[in-house]
From TrEMBL, chains A, B:
<feature type="region of interest" description="Disordered">
    <location>
        <begin position="443"/>
        <end position="466"/>
    </location>
</feature>
<dbReference type="GO" id="GO:0008483">
    <property type="term" value="F:transaminase activity"/>
</dbReference>
<protein>
    <submittedName>
        <fullName>DNA-binding transcriptional MocR family regulator</fullName>
    </submittedName>
</protein>
<comment type="subunit">
    <text>Homodimer.</text>
</comment>
<dbReference type="InterPro" id="IPR015421">
    <property type="entry name" value="PyrdxlP-dep_Trfase_major"/>
</dbReference>
<feature type="domain" description="Aminotransferase class I/classII large">
    <location>
        <begin position="74"/>
        <end position="424"/>
    </location>
</feature>
<feature type="region of interest" description="Disordered">
    <location>
        <begin position="1"/>
        <end position="33"/>
    </location>
</feature>
<dbReference type="GO" id="GO:0030170">
    <property type="term" value="F:pyridoxal phosphate binding"/>
</dbReference>
<keyword id="KW-0032">Aminotransferase</keyword>
<keyword id="KW-0238">DNA-binding</keyword>
<feature type="compositionally biased region" description="Polar residues">
    <location>
        <begin position="450"/>
        <end position="466"/>
    </location>
</feature>
<comment type="similarity">
    <text>Belongs to the class-I pyridoxal-phosphate-dependent aminotransferase family.</text>
</comment>
<dbReference type="InterPro" id="IPR006311">
    <property type="entry name" value="TAT_signal"/>
</dbReference>
<dbReference type="InterPro" id="IPR050859">
    <property type="entry name" value="Class-I_PLP-dep_aminotransf"/>
</dbReference>
<dbReference type="Pfam" id="PF00155">
    <property type="entry name" value="Aminotran_1_2"/>
</dbReference>
<feature type="compositionally biased region" description="Low complexity">
    <location>
        <begin position="15"/>
        <end position="29"/>
    </location>
</feature>
<keyword id="KW-0663">Pyridoxal phosphate</keyword>
Amino acid sequence: MTPSSPAPRPDALHGAGAAAAGAAAGTTGDPHLDRYAARTTGMTASEIRALFAVASRPEVVSLAGGMPNLAALPLDSLAVEVGDLVATEGQGALQYGSAQGVPVLREQIGEVMAFEAGSLAATGGFAPDDVVVTVGSQSALDMLTRLFVDPGDVVLAESPSYVGALGSFAAYQAEVRHVAMDDDGLVPAALEEALERLAREGRRAKFLYTVPNFHNPVGVSLAPGRRAQVVELCRRYGVLIVEDNPYGLLGFDGQTYESLRSLDPENVVYLGSFSKIFASGLRVGWALAPHGIRDKLVLAAESATLCPPAFTQLVVSRYLATHDWRSLVKSFREMYRERCEAMLGALETHLPEGCSWTRPRGGFFVWATVPEGVDTRAMLPRAISARVAYASGTGFHADGSGARHMRLSFCYPPPERIVEGVRRLAGVLDGELEVLRTFGLSGSGATGARPSSGTPGPQAPSVDTA
Amino acid sequence: MTPSSPAPRPDALHGAGAAAAGAAAGTTGDPHLDRYAARTTGMTASEIRALFAVASRPEVVSLAGGMPNLAALPLDSLAVEVGDLVATEGQGALQYGSAQGVPVLREQIGEVMAFEAGSLAATGGFAPDDVVVTVGSQSALDMLTRLFVDPGDVVLAESPSYVGALGSFAAYQAEVRHVAMDDDGLVPAALEEALERLAREGRRAKFLYTVPNFHNPVGVSLAPGRRAQVVELCRRYGVLIVEDNPYGLLGFDGQTYESLRSLDPENVVYLGSFSKIFASGLRVGWALAPHGIRDKLVLAAESATLCPPAFTQLVVSRYLATHDWRSLVKSFREMYRERCEAMLGALETHLPEGCSWTRPRGGFFVWATVPEGVDTRAMLPRAISARVAYASGTGFHADGSGARHMRLSFCYPPPERIVEGVRRLAGVLDGELEVLRTFGLSGSGATGARPSSGTPGPQAPSVDTA
């Protein structure tokens, strides 16, 4: 899944936000402070949260969130179908359902996976009974972590990695070890080194978490030639793979990739999502898992929510059954391609020398690197003052590193706003570089003379930066 | 919340069930067996699960589940409203939302609570910003346990207690200590004894979990005169209260009770649910918590699901705004009263001597006690053969005790089916007692000569017995 987040912050969008602000302020004065479980240690909201309340103002161009653009959804015909669902199937749709998910949707998920893989056979083998429908893939990620991770257990993840995954890993006290990526995705040699080091330590990672297609936050895909290597390495070292694939259908030219699961179905848990190809607000994702893990996922789901909402699942099912969803996916590709091109063009035109960035062929995100000395985390308040927001690279590393990077989302704002946002961002960067040139590097960054932007480190995920 | 479950098992209802059967079979042959976290130890599905696949056949009268009866829902007008929601507010309703919940619904939850409490002031103080909307109250329960319980921590709960709560407590490795109930609910002296014993052991319970109104599974309510005592005891011993109130509006005569929260808002987390007064399949519940806990709940929600579905929340909001929901609640009361009376009458008429049962004034459940020597868990397969299902009392105790009890639900089947179900149940009990009279007690029960019904003990919750 890798859900994503509001260009305008949803809390503020709807007019709330005091609770979030309270969370940002920490738990000072909480009379229950001595009662919490050990796993809540360090569980405080990012100070970015408070910033995003400001960033949600309409005059700010947000390149921070990962909200899909829903403008292309056929709301009128969908309204008719959803109304009919309530009128004719309401007794079932509004009732408790199966913890594993509504069977008709589990069947249809096969069609979605076959569309991406080219055929049902190419999915790696598909049976509706292998599927567990979840409350967005975030729920699948959280439950998998719950099932596998004891405090201190190692999880491998790309460097950088999806902020929502890091949030779940932190919630279960995992030790995250990041594995290097390059323009072809996860680097197999780096993975082998990490696995080998763990073996030398007498340890084993519980799983490798990876977003192989149109990665969040980097935007690149794992090269076809590397896929068998990654799968083989994990198999050899006895490490499960969690393959998170929310963007796989959003290749701009329609290109898709072989799933890791198809290469080793017994050692890969595959996560899919309707958030990016239909509607994020329904929170419908799925896991396709080996039987033993599937059974435990169903039990975990019963504890977590009793069952996922039957209603949202049946809305997705209706949509798939009554709409030309494949064409809509194609129109999404076009829309995101256009936005990505607008962003890449603007970055080329406006960003100061010394900056670099990825050139995605799908998905939602560009990953930018700024000149040495610039701290994107420290810079964020100044960017927001200049009416542009982004997600600092620090949120995508378990150890809070990554301050020379930022994630720029092209999914939500229209192209002209993206261009304007990048123009503003360039102005802020110019200002930072000017300060650097004037005062020189101070410590590890130009911001040494400024107030600290807060302690780095893993923080709770948030819809703002997911 | 205390969600509840299918009279016919939903999995089987929809035509699935193999995964559940697999789960029931255990994890034999799972190649990932050495990878799971310690908290999954003993995480196996109840064997009851397999039985319920059989129990879901239409010829079986299920008195086992806790599915609300939705027949009274105004589906046609609801269909119009939900269609309009998609057509006019689809862009927001289908998009990621706030992790705390949609603000308009958090406002409306105040109206629902005021309806029960008599006024907004009598709720114990209400601000929309104190509310966290959750994916059913099960999710709130699970997240609260996650926030408070380290492995081995003590949780106090009524004896018996809601199976879904016990499932979450087991998932986080809590030690559950049950506190005695009588016809007036939780016994304050027993609570004090439990608190005192913990104090002597140098321990403290993390919280008391209680369903004070129309209890699941017992059906009784905490007497008004005991409420201040319970609150005062918990305050004195420094133990938080989790007050789960899914049935509070379903008093047959419209009687409601003062919430524990209203007596000590800073030491009570209140859980509410739309599952029993509107639609369980939307999975919309809420927690009303002191600020520090509320903030952590929001962070936990981000890890668990990123955000609850905006769409289901807005469906609830629309319903509340456009329908006379108070009148519908009143019609639900009438329906459940009629069904309860049918059940109580049938129990009186048919059940053999030596049986006793509670006489609820609201909610969904009767708690029955059978003569010594009868084991309701061992008897269940025979009951299902006789085409009637119930929930054995063993599911409602963390230690698997309670075999002389059973929960009989009157919420879902129509009155004539309830009567028929009780008649069949009485026949099965007659048969058990006949065996007992013939062969005498064997060990602790009449079933010693029969194959064991499996190891007792805490098991995963399931929509079947929730």
